Amino acid sequence: MARKRIEYSDHDLTAYAVRIRELREDHDLTQTDVAKLLNIGQRTYADYELGKIRIPLDALITLAKYYDTDLNYISGVSRQKNEFPKE
Question: Taking the model in full, what pTM does it have?
Answer without folding.
Answer: 0.81
